[in-house]
Amino acid sequence: MKALACTQCDRxxxxxxxxxxxxxxxxxxxxxxxxxIRRAVTPTEIAxxxxxxxxxxxxxxxxxxxxxxSLGEGWTPLAPAARRGPFAPFEQLxxxxxxxxxxxxxxxxxxxxxxxxxxxLGAKAVALPSAGNAGAAASAYAARAGLSCYVFMPVDTPAPxxxxxxxxxxxxxxxxxxINDCGRLVGRGAGxxxxxxxxxxxxxxxxxxxKTMGYEVxxxxxxxxxxxxxxxxxxxxxxxxxxxxxxxxxxxGWIGPGRxxxxxxxxxxxxxxxxAFEAGAATSxxxxxxxxxxxxxxxxxxxGDYIILRVLRESGGTAVAVTDEEMLLAxxxxxxxxxxxxxxxxxxxxxxxxxxxxxxxVTGRERILLYNTGAGVLYPELLSIEAPVIEDPDAPGALDxxx
Length: 403
Hints:
The protein is α/β, with parallel strands linked by helices. It contains 12 helices and 13 strands.
């Protein structure tokens, strides 16, 4: 790693310091000596690495291997969708399932990288706002790293996720408000209490863990890329991280110049990026009264909106919003036809693809990749638990009601 580059003013910063944003307010990206890495590392060597995101350690920010904080994250399944039911028209549809990650979501990737670097740079306590899964992942990796962790969550965060954070030893506080309200408290605590702020894209390293999804997809597809990537977008770190990865891989000589069309899927009740994209704006406006059952999509104004919108336009992609009803139907269809019980955020990608296919924006012949970012079991309140009860299993007619 050579420097931390501002994505807004292009100023370079010394990476050997705990730092959040550039003084101009821009998001910082780690920058590597890719020419040197190209001479030293080949895809063949990568293939001999561990079955985790740390197989890409050459382009990750930890200097000393002893500081790596890992629970086995990454190298998740990439599988072709079975062509049955509503999936039948799609000849080359792929699903990248992030639910096998530690803590059940893709958030483990970002927190592994971020907590590793925070530990390496001497942080003692970290804090973040979270609508759910990021808080759980941060709590787990902070526990592994031996750091104190403070998590601020909206009061309506799913109870199992709150309980998970507490179980990992994090100090959890519920806030009557949205994630941006939680973020203001974290910012105050960082200034007054000395916490290192782990908020989405407010530190340089969560994006580095998330970008490994792009490296993995390329490797799993024989160092090629799909035509279209459909991604659920709250804070958008995964989407922009993959775009960063594609640029790095081309500089390394591992892929060519072709890029997927990137699609950001948001909830109809919280769609700041969709509205900004449709308006041709460079940034989004705060989305008032944000609401959706997919807590990870309830981000009223992403800090990295200007990067997300830039990626969508550079890639020839688009942004689409889906209703909670469409998400829940998509969740059921993924479970019943693919055997994947997706989080509502992940299910939103399938709902979004159906909308885009209906408009003719994609065809059934293209190589399309959906990201399921987490496990549906983390949202038990969205799952049906109604089932017939057999009162007497030994009665002669016990099976009469079975259909």
